[in-house]
């Protein structure tokens, strides 16, 4: 059965023989995927959003089943599962209230296997129709002829200014180009774009992971947060989640889907260091901002990365080197360019105090003070990227195809890039 027709069910029921029968019946149904079993709604809530769940089967006998605010909270979630109650005849007053709180239907106990499956199938079909209607409404909105350009901020070493730059650049690019800009926190484990933009939200990229094979525009939109600057933001998961780490391989696919469903620019704050997952991100990008500082360690790591990049066959204009935190009395820029055999595309001046204030107060420097030297450099970079007056940067080349979700990039690309290979 195609994945889109499988019904993903979460059961919330007390431990008792009727529940055991229900669970084993659902396990045996070919068209059903049992996502899990929770003893209370409270325990079920964290699962919603982490996993794809079409239907939540709620037994009226669980201790918190009658807390209507919990049902309302579920109904308000993006891509909320349809709640179907399993109740006794005496529960009818509660059923009425629960339907007002967002539940979709109910099964009267005792019910047969056939009644159970008919109810699940009908609810699932109705939910699909509603989602489809949502898509159709949104398709009626202007169709995008172009997909957004993906620009990934990457550095081999961490702690050198990627997040400060990514957040400010997204705002500057939105203002300079007058185009939509979507900022993605690609650091799934330790991302801090939310702090840098002073956003408090539960929505994140984790909401998209269960839908990675069907990332339509409305699904992606439901996970985005609109920042006061007008930039749309896709945050990293709010908590460290080992399951999300496993899904890192899907990040490039998600970014590609984000870009395919909107125009303008997608800015990705990538994690530091090179992994298979980051390499896939770089493949998807039309532009890679290679962020470095003048420290010996950072320059050496950048040089090593550039040597690897030569083997990736990226067009030369894809990699734009950005020197972060540069002081006037640092090594001359020409000397750095000679050492790295790569031109410096942008220089972000040094001001640790201003950057620390911006990061800690959650207000990117371009929004705090657009006349600050760092802001001016970032606006200039934004104009370069959008082909504005200080431009001169050639139009980006199309990205390489991203790996399909879950697929490892072609035979471990990092292994192929190892120094000393015969073909290197
Ligand atoms: N233009 C700058 N001038 C001086 N210091 C800077 C500048 N940009 C960044 N820094 C320093 O780098 C620190 C880290 O900045 P930021 O969080 O933006 O870097 P990052 O590369 O995203 O870090 P991580 O690898 O932890 O994600 C800042 O707290 C600041 O001390
Ligand atoms: Mg960062």
Write a structural description.
The chain has 17 helices and 13 strands. It is of the alpha/beta class and 424 residues long. The chain folds into 2 domains: 3-140, 3-Layer(aba) Sandwich (Rossmann fold); 149-416, Rossmann fold (3-Layer(aba) Sandwich). An 8-stranded mixed β-sheet has the order 8-9-7-10-6-11-12-13, with helices on both faces. Strands 2-1-3-4-5 form a 5-stranded parallel β-sheet, with helices on both faces. Strand 8 (225-226) and strand 9 (232-234) form a beta hairpin. Helix 6 packs across helix 16 and helix 10 runs parallel beside helix 11 (276-284). The protein binds adenosine-5'-triphosphate and magnesium ion. Magnesium ion (MG) is lined by residues 162-163, 187, 192, 269.
List the keywords.
single chain; 424 residues; alpha/beta; Rossmann fold; 2 domains; 13 strands; binds adenosine-5'-triphosphate; binds magnesium ion
Task: Report the β-strand fraction as a percent range.
Answer: 15-25%
Q: State the end-to-end CA separation.
A: 45 Å
Please outline the major beta sheet.
8 strands, mixed
Note the total helix count.
Answer: 17
- CATH-derived architecture of the largest domain: 3-Layer(aba) Sandwich
Each distinct ligand: adenosine-5'-triphosphate, magnesium ion
CATH class of the largest domain: Alpha Beta
Given the helix and strand composition, which structural class is it?
alpha/beta
Quick structural gist:
It contains 17 helices and 13 strands. The protein has 424 residues and is α/β, with parallel strands linked by helices.
């Amino acid at each position: 059965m195609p994945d889109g027709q499988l019904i993903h069910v979460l059961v919330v029921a007390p431990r008792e023989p009727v529940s055991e029968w229900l669970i084993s019946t659902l396990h045996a149904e070919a068209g059903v995927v049992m996502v899990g079993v929770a003893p209370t709604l409270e325990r079920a809530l964290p699962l919603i959003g982490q996993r794809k769940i079409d239907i939540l089967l709620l037994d009226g006998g669980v201790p918190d089943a009658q807390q209507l605010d919990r049902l309302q909270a579920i109904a308000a979630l993006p891509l909320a599962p349809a709640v179907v109650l399993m109740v006794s005849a005496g529960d009818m007053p509660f059923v009425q209230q629960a339907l007002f709180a967002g539940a979709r239907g109910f099964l009267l106990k005792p019910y047969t296997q056939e009644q159970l499956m008919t109810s699940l199938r009908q609810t699932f079909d109705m939910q699909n129709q509603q989602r489809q209607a949502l898509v159709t409404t949104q398709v009626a909105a202007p169709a995008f002829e172009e997909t957004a350009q993906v620009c990934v901020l990457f550095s081999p070493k961490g702690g050198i200014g990627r997040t400060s730059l990514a957040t400010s650049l997204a705002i500057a690019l939105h203002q300079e180009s007058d185009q939509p800009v979507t900022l993605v926190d690609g650091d799934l484990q330790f991302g801090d774009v939310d702090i840098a933009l002073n956003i408090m939200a539960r929505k994140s990229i984790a909401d998209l992971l269960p839908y990675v094979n069907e990332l339509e525009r409305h699904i992606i939109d439901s996970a985005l947060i609109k920042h006061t600057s007008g930039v749309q933001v896709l945050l990293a998961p709010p908590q460290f989640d080992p399951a999300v780490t496993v899904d890192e391989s899907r990040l490039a696919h998600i970014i590609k889907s984000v870009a395919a469903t909107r125009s303008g620019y997608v800015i990705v704050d990538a994690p530091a260091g090179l992994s298979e997952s980051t390499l896939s991100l770089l493949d998807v990008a039309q532009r890679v901002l290679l962020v470095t500082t003048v420290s010996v360690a950072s320059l050496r790591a950048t040089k090593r990365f550039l040597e690897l990049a030569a083997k990736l066959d990226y067009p030369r204009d894809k990699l734009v080197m950005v020197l972060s935190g540069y002081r006037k009395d640092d090594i001359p820029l020409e000397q750095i360019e000679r050492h790295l055999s790569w031109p410096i595309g942008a220089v972000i001046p040094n001001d640790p105090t201003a950057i620390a204030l911006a990061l800690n107060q959650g207000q990117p420097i371009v929004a705090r003070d657009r006349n600050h030297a760092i802001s001016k450099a970032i606006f200039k970079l934004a104009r370069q990227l959008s082909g504005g007056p200080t431009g001169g940067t050639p139009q980006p080349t199309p990205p390489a195809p991203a790996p399909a979700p879950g697929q490892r990039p072609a035979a471990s690309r990092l292994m192929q890039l190892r120094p000393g290979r015969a073909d290197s």
